[in-house]
Amino acid sequence: MGAYLCIAMNKVPPSVSKRFTVIVHFHPLIRVLNQLVAAPITSDVHVQCYLEASPKAMNTWSRDTGEKLLPNDKYVMQETQINDYSLLMNLTIKNLDKSDFGGYICQSYNLLGKAEAVVRLQVH
């Protein structure tokens, strides 16, 4: 994807140029840099997924138990845009207790498909 410039010229001036942009659509792709995260009880922990998708995707977090996570006092969710087609999905889990340990799933959906990845949270 990107901007391209096509220049046509022959021995008769002037040369002619045309700029165009190529946009490629593809299903979401997710990478997890740290698949296993350890943290002590009562601490706050940060987990992250790297996502690429075009067109833009709908992104969610859930537990491996099937529970969908919503922003509240316990869970803070942020997305950091990197460029037109990639971003970081960030989840902060506050004040960890025993029930917070286990799997967290980052999920992404667009018109062309879906992807998901798991981050496991364990006691440090």
From TrEMBL:
Keyword Repeat carried by entry: yes
Pfam family, one: I-set
Domain named Ig-like: residues: 28-124
Superkingdom field: Eukaryota
Classification via InterPro entries: Ig-like_dom, Ig-like_dom_sf, Ig-like_fold, Ig_I-set, Ig_sub, Neural/epithelial_adhesion
Keywords: Disulfide bond, Immunoglobulin domain, Repeat
GO cellular component term, pick one: neuron projection
Protein name per UniProt: Ig-like domain-containing protein
